[in-house]
Amino acid sequence: MEACSGGEHSVPTDGELVRQARAGSERGFELLVRRYQGIVSARAYAVLHDRADAEDAAQDAFLRVFRALGQLREPEAFGPWLLQTVTNVARRALSRRARQPMALPDVGAVDHRQGHPEVFDAVAALPEGYQQVIHLHYSQGCSCEEIARLLGLQVGSVTSRLTRARQMLRRILSEDKHR
Amino acid sequence: MTICERFAHQVDAYELGMLDAAARQAVDAHLAACAACRGLLAEVRSADAAARAALAWAEPSPAFAPRVAARARRRIILGRLAVASGIAAVVAVAVCVVLSRAPRTPTAVKLAAPEKRELIVEPQGSAGSLVAGEAYDAYGLPAGRLVPGRLYAAAEPAALSVDPGSLLLVARGSQFTPATTPGRSGPGVSILSGGVVGQVGSRGKELAIELAPELGGAVVRTRGCEFYSYGFPAHRLAAGMPFPAGSLALWPEEIGVHVFSGHLDLDLGTQKLALGAGDSAVIAGGVSAGTADSIGKHIGQLHDALGTELIEQRDLYARLRNDYAHRLLELRSASRQDGLPHLQERLELVDELLRDHSAALSRLEAAHPEFFELDAAVAEERRLNELHDEADHALERFVALLDNAR
Fold it and tell me: Quick one: chain A helix, strand, coil %, rounded to 5?
């Protein structure tokens, strides 16, 4: 939740933490992990719909960006870069999972969609760009400005995207209810 | 546009706090006077609450950040070592040794094929171990850990243990040791009770394995050849996928190949090997298609080509297929049948759903061969990442040794 908790002035920026991590500071990287762990896991969960898989994907994404930290031209763009990475990692995990031969589900596994399957299905029916803002908005409580910063978009385009996504989500949920 | 219509357009901006003060004040004034718009706002807020409750994401476990940081620490060690004079060369050598472990000259060994690839069935199911030969699951896919064509020595540990009631088919020529009569080995056996279930063989150019419909398994068709890595199907050239030239570049260190029909001419540079229908081989020393980064870019392009919708659709079909297979296994298990009402109807329904989803998955994959290329690239990327991890571990051990020596 930290990535969307608003910015006090004393808090180091992403760019400062990236520069510290590049210089070999373990603390700098750990702070980045703590700042983004919720949002990264939520993004992975939006793709994988499985909590354990999402946490694995999140961990994988952090390690990948850490490995490539030196290649990041604009340290302040760490957030959008990380979110793009976790999206890619989660999609790959999805591909792998689909190809597991006879990987039978755990009998005792809990369906995390339990209680709200219709909402998950409705979100899954949205275009991907809309899913992203919906997840950041509802699961992380991010404002339009925060989403814009994280995704590297203009606030105006996030606002219109989020507005359309919310309207579409309500329409799908309402159609489901009347079906 | 009436005020109510305007509000219907503005309600999201209102809730998101995106209206300016004047517009917000006007909306508040209208809401105070209009019951219909208050109703609309209540609906929007109720939908918001439902979405928030459903999508609320608990933070990862408290151990998450330290765990990630600990793994990253190994990289930091690498960075420190790299800048330390005199040690950098050693590190570079250590990394190169680990990363170049895979031999660069591919070689292939042709394996003896089983005499006859035919599935047979015994009337009684029983638990036991398969010690030789090959086995297939209900979908006609090779069951884990048994490489078709590989002959398992009797002295080897059981290659595959099976439970009674499993939907496992064993090819003739395989050896199965039932748990009830240890030491007995015999010809092929199906663990499933019932009549004749199917055949493995070659018909025309396409058919590899066909299962009788009453089994609930999908018909699997393969053109050309099918590949296995460590006994597991490596889906890069799976059912319905033609064999593309140049695929060798993406093979991992060791991969098995079985030609169901047609032929496969392997040109490995230093070695040529011709395989005909029914032949199997193990190819070692596949070379990487590039770095993890270049493969990652390739994966991204394939993702874009397929689109998220198709990828998710495939995942859904695969998960549903596995889910129904699981339910079918449970329903067919004797211990679960006691007192279960409408057992036959349940079996038929699950069987039908299983068949539908298996067929849907096969159709989807056959229509989009990029899926197999994607699988291959993902597997290769994973292998390279494992090598990187291995290099990290090696470096960590090396650093520990240096510390102890000081």
Answer: 75, 0, 25
Q: A-chain residues within 8 Å CB-CB of B55?
A: 42, 119, 123, 134-135, 138-139
pLDDT digits (tens, 9 = 90+) for B314-326: 888 877 777 777 6
Rounded distance between C-alpha atoms, residue B10 and residue A177, angstroms: 24
- CA-nearest residue to B233 within chain A is A101
Domain edges within chain A: 1-102, 113-179
* Chain B residues close to A67, C-beta within 8 Å: 75, 388
**Choice between B320 and B78, residue whose per-residue pLDDT is larger:** B320
Under CATH, which architecture does the A113-179 domain have? Answer: Orthogonal Bundle (1.10)
Q: For position B157, what pLDDT does the model report?
A: 45
Hey, which residues 30-89 in chain A have their CB within 8 Å of chain B?
Answer: 30, 33-34, 37-38, 41-42, 45, 47, 55, 58-59, 62-63, 66-68, 88
Rounded to whole angstroms, the Cα distance separating B14 from A173 reads 21
User: For A21-75, what is each residue's pLDDT tens digit?
Assistant: 887 777 888 888 888 888 888 888 878 877 788 888 898 899 888 877 877 778 8
The shortest CB-CB distance from A67 to any of B13, B75, B308 is to B75
A30 CA: distance to closest CA in chain B (Å): 6
**What pTM, to 2 d.p., does this model score?**
0.47
More confident residue, B45 or B132: B45
CA nearest B228: which of B165, B284, B148? B148
ipTM: 0.70
The owner of tokens 């990253």 is B72
In this complex, do B322 and A102 lie within 8 Å of one another by their Cβ atoms? yes
Is residue B298 pLDDT above 70, yes or no? yes
The pLDDT value recorded for residue B143 is 52
Residue B139 clears pLDDT 70, i.e. is over it: no
Sequence-ordered list of residues with C-beta below 8 angstroms from that of A49, at least 6 positions apart, any chain: A112, A113, A120
Fold of A1-102: Rna Polymerase Sigma Factor; Chain: A (1.10.1740)
Structure-token pair, residue B162? 């099976």
Of the candidates A128, A36, A42, A91, the one whose C-alpha atom is nearest the C-alpha of residue B296 is A91
Cβ atoms of B173 and B148 closer than 8 Å = no
CA closest to B71 among chain A residues:
A63
